[in-house]
Amino acid sequence: MSRMANRKRKRHHLTPGQKLLFIFALLIVFGLCSTVFLDMKTMQETYEAPKDSSGWKDSVSAYVLAAEGSLVAPFYNEGLAVTGEYGRGTEVELESWEPFVAENGMEYYHVFLDGQTGYFLCENITDDQSALVQEAQLYVRSTVHMYQEATDVAIGPLAQKGTLLRVVGYDYFKKDGSVNMYHVMMGEEFGWIKSEYVVQDYGESMGHWDEKNTYIGKHVFRGDGFGGGDAGGLDYWPHEKGDFSDQGNTMPEDVYGLFIPATHSTPETVASYLELGEGNEANAFVVTLNEGTDLAYESPLFEQAGILDSYNVINSMEEFSKSIQMLKDAGYYVIGRITSFQDTPLAQARPDWSVSDLRGEPLELGGSCWISAFCREAWELKVSFALEAVDNFGFNEIQFDYVRFPDLIQEMEEKGTLDMKNTLGESKAQALQRFLTYATDLIHSHGAYVAADVFGETGNFYVASYGQYWPAISDVVDVICGMPYPDHFGSYYENRQRVVPYRMPYKAMYDWASKVYDRQTECASPAIVRTWIQSWDDYSYKYDSAAIQREIIALYDQGVPGGYMLWHGNGSLSIPEKLPEVLKYDYRALYEQAVAQGTKLSSYMNFSTDDTQEEEDD
């Protein structure tokens, strides 16, 4: 028995070599199992991932065709339930041209689209791209310039409201099925026009946006009291505002901006500006691209136009690119400021574009010459300059300053001693709105926002003599930037008390913001209000940090947020001692907290709105 037991024990005993073989076999089995597991996991992930191809052997391409009068067609899942809509022109993959006939007799094509299979009705699928646009003629809803080409800045003929257009083509479809731009004939002239400015019904084209009885009850009633234009002759249809967040260009909800003149735009000086923005709420810089005789960089466009030598050029392209990149790398939203029509070098170089005397010589007003905003060649140059800045330096926004006619020229106009280059018989207000429409459309197509500076006077209800009318401008651009500097307002009497605005920054801004609040309600698509703030001392009144804050807080107290920009003609480096207190607050966040508690920002912050300062008599 003992020998038998010993033999059994020896039978189960493994030699060292056998042990190694056993371990090696286990490792092989483990490896195979792991490989199978990983392969299964990969297969599962591949199966769960969105498909980019149906895998159908004989599939064909086709396009979504919307029913007449519609821009979209319904998409059905495999159970023939409607699960969404797709715009006309959307490319799809068909399993075949053999239709699937449902029990109710409806015929469908089996399709692959956006990683899923499903069905479209046969009537909503075509392989004929020429059949996608069924509109043969359109009518102009808003007077606007057409383009000579779909992808160029060259201005084509002016298409007046109600004009019949014959459709001859289009460029592409937007995701919602609407056409981006139509190629059309207007009489014997060809051009390209954006789809938002046309409709298919003549009666609709002759209407006006009047949702709140604003057009008839307000704009038409205001007329033309000062020579700037008839408020009733402007366009008030909603304009789509820019949103380029998906392109990495997100506009701050409220901008807290510092100002850099063209002369201070060198990399060395920009480094000093960056120090101003450290450790506070500043989130944007406004960098002047041109003003007076100064040009921020050696513009290839201006060189090509033969006008570069007329300017004092501050930077090379490389130097200016470095300056702007420094701001962007530091996380700032960067705005390029362009002086639009007050441009002495350009007016002298192109007197045929200028506001001139009857001899054709540019008229000098207050030491400056002006380009006429009626001149379309000037439009093309200024907008091309804006696009050059956006494309080469990555500006988030373009801000047009001096987007107006010169003021104080009404008497000369009445005497007929001026040549305004008004070949189309437009009002000043019409020319400015149409310029901003043209500029905004093109700059939006390059992924940047558009702002326009306006005089503080435009907070009033009338069209100003130089053509600015708040509702007409606010409707078009993304941001409207009032310049209600208290020292620009004259003294007046209120309740038998003399009001001196430059000594009352809170009251001056509070009263102005009240008017602006009303103007914004008269717009179909109001812009963001972002205000230029006076930050220089004036006469006997010191604009210290408290006075500047009262200007800002007054805007929020009147429900006109959007932020501010500190204006000093010499740039924000001239006011560093005022900045720490002004820039320490996120006014928007505090404003929202104040609104939630049903109080004004000044009360919520326990901030005095008393404008009293020790001062000398005038």
Short description:
By secondary structure, this protein is of the alpha/beta class. It is built from 17 helices and 32 strands.
The low-confidence parts are 1-12, 35-50
* Spatial gap, N to C terminus: 131 Å
CATH architecture of the largest domain: Alpha-Beta Barrel
Helix fraction by DSSP (H/I, runs of at least 4): 25-40%
* Number of alpha- plus pi-helical segments: 17
* Assigned CATH superfamily of the largest domain: Glycosidases
What is the radius of gyration computed over CA atoms, rounded to a whole number of angstroms? 33 Å
In terms of DSSP E residues, the strand content is 15-25%
Inertia-based shape: globular
Structural class, by secondary structure, is alpha/beta
CATH class of the largest domain: Alpha Beta
Number of domains: 3
> What's the CATH topology name of the largest domain?
TIM Barrel
Average predicted confidence as pLDDT = 92
Query: What about the largest sheet?
Result: 11 strands, mixed
Number of strands: 32
Walkthrough of the structure:
With 618 residues, the chain is α/β, with parallel strands linked by helices. It folds into 3 domains: 60-130, SH3 type barrels; 137-207, Roll (SH3 type barrels); 245-604, Glycosidases (TIM Barrel, Alpha-Beta Barrel). 30% of the residues lie in helices and 23% in strands. Strands 16, 17, 18, 19, 20, 24, 26, 27, 30, 31 and 32 form an 11-stranded mixed sheet that branches. Strands 1, 4, 5, 6, 7 and 8 form a 6-stranded antiparallel sheet that branches. Strands 14-13-12-9-15 form a 5-stranded antiparallel sheet. β28 (492-494) and β29 form a beta hairpin. α5 runs parallel beside α7, α9 (376-393) packs parallel to α11 and α13 (505-521) runs parallel beside α14. It is globular, with a radius of gyration of 33 Å. 40% of the residues are buried. Mean pLDDT is 92; it is low at 1-12 and 35-50.
